[in-house]
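debug: dumping io for the single-chain case to check the tokenizer round-trip. Nothing else runs in this session.
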Amino acid sequence: MTTAQAARVATTGRGETRETEEPVLEHDVFAQLCPSRAVFAELADKWSMLILMSLVTCGPQRFSELQRGVGGVSRKMLTQSLRTLERSGLVLRTVFPETPPRVVYDLLPLGRELAGLLEPLGRWTELRTGQMLAAREEFDAAHAPDGP
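debug: decoded output
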């Protein structure tokens, strides 16, 4: 059994231990010098997350389709984000030998897995935005310089 396949032993509040299904992690995003921190930061970029969500929702897309689907992203940022996602093994860029060449972006299995995790976050955000905006207004009113 490899380290990644080994079960983690968790300690309960009463000092007992139990086995969990979680693999032993080789990286720690909270550690300042761990390479997973840089990977996490790249993935947490708003454009990367939106691109992945667009690809999982709408399927394979051309560059212009992605740009329209991810409103507000510039050509430069879309290009940079796609290259980062491609380099990280999340997105596949396929060039079809046509005139003019047709380029399509799609998710690789790792990207599909991550996008599946992002979908509920996107839905939750859409559902709860009204509440969060109301909370912000309430907070701002309570903390205004001339407020209570």
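debug: round-trip ok. The longest strand covers residues 17-23.
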